[in-house]
Structures are given as structure tokens and as C-alpha cells.
């Protein structure tokens, strides 16, 4: 029989940690690893994106790579992207990662 702990017990903490980990693993991402030759990664964690209400990444992108479709952030044409990272800097929620 499994022991139960009160609201603040270790089972509760462990359960919360597991729930958070599962939510993180299931959160939607737009991930584009552009190959072994370039080692460039462009990732958008859409779960934390404020979407259509913010649009800072869309407004700052000099190549108009980012757009919104059905109220969610989308990559319009990744081949146009120069991976300058301006979108990542502009994002107030740290949803965008650009790694070279």
C-alpha cells in the first residue's frame, strides 16, 4: 500500500514536478534543425507565445519569415531567414531560440 502525504508532502511535490515535465514535453514547438553542415537551430516554443496579441517577432524580422496563421506563430519561408536572432531578442517570453 502506498503512503499518502498531506497537501505539501513529497508525493505532492513529486506529482507537481512530473506534471510540469509532461506538459513541457508535450508543449508545441516549431523546430527546424537545418542540417549537419550548418548546425543552425531555429526553435519556437509556441506554448509560451502570446501570439497575435504580441507580434514583436513578426514586426522585427527583416526578411518577413515569421507570420501568424490561425492565431499561432508560423514560419513562412525558413529559406529566407538569415538567422540574425532579432526575433529571439524581441520576444518578451523567450519563446524563440536561434543557435548558430
From TrEMBL:
GO terms for molecular function: oxidoreductase activity. Residues 40-70, 71-100 form the 4Fe-4S ferredoxin-type domain. SUPFAM superfamilies: 4Fe-4S ferredoxins. Pfam families: Fer4_9. This is Electron transport complex subunit RsxB. It comes from Methanobrevibacter woesei. The lineage of its organism: Archaea, Methanobacteriati, Methanobacteriota, Methanomada group, Methanobacteria.
Amino acid at each position: 500500500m502506498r503512503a499518502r502525504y498531506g497537501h505539501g508532502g513529497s508525493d505532492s511535490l513529486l506529482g507537481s514536478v512530473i506534471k510540469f515535465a509532461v506538459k513541457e514535453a508535450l508543449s508545441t514547438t516549431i523546430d527546424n534543425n537545418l542540417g549537419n553542415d550548418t548546425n543552425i537551430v531555429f526553435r519556437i516554443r509556441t506554448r509560451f507565445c502570446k501570439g497575435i496579441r504580441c507580434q514583436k517577432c513578426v514586426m522585427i524580422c527583416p526578411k518577413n519569415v515569421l507570420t501568424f496563421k490561425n492565431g499561432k506563430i508560423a514560419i513562412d519561408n525558413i529559406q529566407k531567414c538569415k538567422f540574425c536572432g532579432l526575433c529571439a531578442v524581441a520576444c518578451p517570453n523567450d519563446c524563440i531560440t536561434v543557435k548558430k
